[in-house]
Amino acid sequence: MSRVSIIGAGYVGLVTGVCLAEKGHDVVCVESDAAKLATIRAGAAPFHEEGLGELLQKHIGHRFTATASVDEAVAATELTLIAVGTPFDGKTIDLSYVLRACDEIGAAIRKADRYHVVVVKSTVVPGTTTGAVQAQLEKSSGRRAGAGFGLGANPEFLTEGTALKDFMYPDRIVIGGIDERSLEVLAALYTAFGGVPVIRTNPSTAEMIKYASNSLLAAMISFSNEIADLCTAVGGIDALDVMRGVHASTYLTVTNGNGARAQAPISSFLEAGCGFGGSCLPKDVSALVAHGNARGLDMGLLREVMTINRRRPGRVIEALERGLGTLGGKRVAVLGLAFKPDTDDVRESPAFPIIRALVEGGAQVSAFDPVANAPARRALAGVTVSFAKNLQEAVEGADAVVVVTRWKEFEMLPDVVAAMDRPPLVFDGRRMLDRAAFARYDGIGL
Ligand code: NAD
Ligand code: UGA
């Protein structure tokens, strides 16, 4: 079993930490945010993720500890995973958190008397580990990569909402190392994940696998959105029926051993809607485009994937204007503030540009999310919007109801709307509801 430190106890770092503890490793998580650290130390999850609190409670103080000190963590372990944020700053990937972590890790390695392996788990553009990260670690440690310390990249593929399951039962493990010794230490972390394909490669290839994976998902979503918009523009075509026909292809529907046909999981990225949000797809595609541009490549396809995505909130607003005549003075309920269901993460949520445009157009907005009202309130500080306690309160007296996030709870909407005196226009931004259940219904791709 390994002794591993993890820098950054966010969605990736904390999930990785408790899951590796569950697999039998000794884990020390380092978190610089004092409030988050205190919550974790008290055995509570600092964000909404199914099962996280329970697993944290099980291991905290035993195989899992949390500290503010990188120095202490590195000294007690043989491997450090960097899992800090890598935002897009509008022009390029912002590596400041990663490089600051490298400074602290390097300083600790300088004092240590044994070999230590540093691994980048954060999503970083290809070439970063053996470029900026290696240079910073060599500077701060006073040692050479390879001889003085090991180095690698181990991108993470978990999805928020199902993060623990994704980590415990991964579809692949990608490990990139600068040499065999680094790869061996990194591979030892995953020996208890039997049967999972392990891709052993160099750090830059590992980094590229992560971006290629996320870019493919984003491209499929934008493709579906473009087709859906064309269905609306032509008229008389429902994009859902079109996609049903597309999915029937044997490329997208697999036949099981018993002859039953089942949609391939990739089909879940062919759903037209309000656009992709979150802390990953938008920033990763943007960072890759910038990375390509800096090397003289146009990156036209992925650039357009982002352009199509940025237009999504506008499409919702156009449809509402068509349905309501004008937004001025209308009451609009916006359902779903998290960027996707089963999380309270509101980073890059498509709900925000929709709400801002509604308010600018003179509408009164009532917003509701089953778990993300509080972070949304902070993100929308200064915008005149009221937050409802529940679905019923959100839609009360509404002229229009917009579904932005595919929360299971919103499947109750037909009953809630049926009890209203005046039926509102329901705009289904995720096409998750039965259109026949509403007197006035519109949606993406109709
Ligand atoms: P996050 O913002 O939730 O967490 C990062 C944490 O690191 C924060 O709690 C922050 O306080 C802490 N931190 C920053 N610098 C630190 C330092 N020097 N010492 C100690 N703590 C420090 O970010 P996240 O969503 O977990 O993403 C982390 C990385 O993983 C990103 O590169 C992201 O692209 C990638 N990723 C994220 C997901 C996801 O679903 N969120 C999935 C796969 C990959
Ligand atoms: C995504 C990837 O799915 C993960 O594999 C990856 O590890 C992660 O990014 C990452 O690198 O951080 P995540 O952002 O948690 O995971 O969520 P997704 O389920 O991919 O959804 C992203 C966004 O796309 C959501 O806003 C969702 O509503 C939207 N989406 C998804 C669509 O609009 N249409 C679809 O068909 C699918």
In short, what is this structure?
The chain is an alpha/beta fold and 446 residues long. The chain is 42% helix and 15% strand.
Secondary structure layout:
Layout (H helix, E strand, L loop, with lengths): L2 E5 L3 H12 L3 E5 L3 H8 L10 H8 L4 E4 L2 H6 L3 E4 L13 H16 L5 E4 L8 H13 L8 E4 L9 H6 L4 E5 L2 H9 L9 E4 L1 H32 L4 H9 L5 E3 L5 E3 L17 H14 L5 H25 L6 E5 L15 H10 L3 E5 L4 H7 L5 E3 L3 H5 L4 E4 L9 H6 L6 E4 L12 E3 L3
Parallel strand pairs: 1-2, 1-4, 2-3, 4-5, 5-6, 7-8, 11-12, 11-14, 12-13, 14-15, 15-16
Antiparallel strand pairs: 6-7, 9-10
Helix pairs in contact: 1-3, 5-6, 9-11, 9-12, 11-12, 12-13
The structure holds nicotinamide-adenine-dinucleotide and uridine-5'-diphosphate-glucuronic acid.
Structural features, described:
- By secondary structure, the protein is α/β, with parallel strands linked by helices.
- It has 16 helices and 16 strands.
- The strands form 3 sheets. The chain has an 8-stranded mixed beta sheet with strand order 3-2-1-4-5-6-7-8, sandwiched between helices. A 6-stranded parallel beta sheet has the order 13-12-11-14-15-16.
- Helix 6 (129-141) links the parallel strand 5 (117-120) and strand 6.
- Helix 1 (11-22) crosses helix 3 (52-59), helix 5 (96-111) crosses helix 6 (129-141) and helix 11 (281-294) crosses helix 12.
- The longest helix has 32 residues, at 203-234.
- It is globular, with a radius of gyration of 24 Å.
- The termini are far apart.
- The model has no long low-confidence stretch (mean pLDDT 96).
- Bound molecules: nicotinamide-adenine-dinucleotide and uridine-5'-diphosphate-glucuronic acid.
- The site of nicotinamide-adenine-dinucleotide has 26 residues, from helix 1 and helix 5.
